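U., I forgot to send this yesterday:
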Amino acid sequence: MKIIGYIPHILNAIKGIMKSLEPFKPNVNSITINYKNCNSIIEVVVHVPEGVRRRFSKIVLPYPGFRIKEMRDKTFRRVESLWTYDGGKWVLPTSKLPSSSERFLIVLEGSIPSDFIKHIVRIQPASNRDQTEEEDRYWLSCMLRNVAVLEELWNYLEIDDVTIDVKVGIKRCFITALPKEVKRALEVAREWLIVGRGRDRAAIYRTWRKYRGVMRSSPSIDRLLEVLYHVTTGSYFRDFVYVDDPFTIGEIKREEVATTPYPERISVEALTNLNIEKPEAKGYLVFKRKRYIESIKNELGVIE
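Result:
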């Protein structure tokens, strides 16, 4: 693994923060990296009694890649508006700290290179699929790379929102659900839209006649397209997919580029969290294909 080559970015940041906080006996509570958003949260507890405040007039954090997200005292009350950003450094005069507390939690937030995250997390593409008459099952697997190395560095490390993008195939759902005349109407409508942009008058006229003929014996194309769009939205499709623990369903998006009036696939995010104690996550994403087909038929008013 070439993980070591990617560690210095965040490791140097943490070392720089810790070195700056040495007079205040820093203790790292946690380091959380968000895989999806490529950002990191570092929580550090510092000890700033009265004697230390007299010897050290400022707390200075020189690492510009992180910002002060918030600060709290020992009772978890927020300590407001003490930090300033000056010359690439975060500065806090210790004299301004409330005298009611000696211990404070500092929460820092910063961006993390995506290359670094991908070199500490291994994701197996969810391409293998088990099929039954009623559902499709996609295998999900992800893990931390080289846990021993990571554990030596940060035994408090957690990776949130590890994202596996699953392309759920839905084309044959429409092939099954749509009656022949509906599929014919949609195909002719698509042909008309393509030919209508051209300059071949004979082709335009022939396609227009087919289109008019189909429209006389088929449902409204506008209504069909409205239904097809509705059943491929993320909010609608969410009811037909689920994931095993420890995964959760994230964003669901339809593919906008398609050669048919409906997308061939819908992208479903499966999310999970990894840490040193639980470095691996496995499970299935299940697509209730038969129930989805029946729902499409109901939306179209199709009766068996």
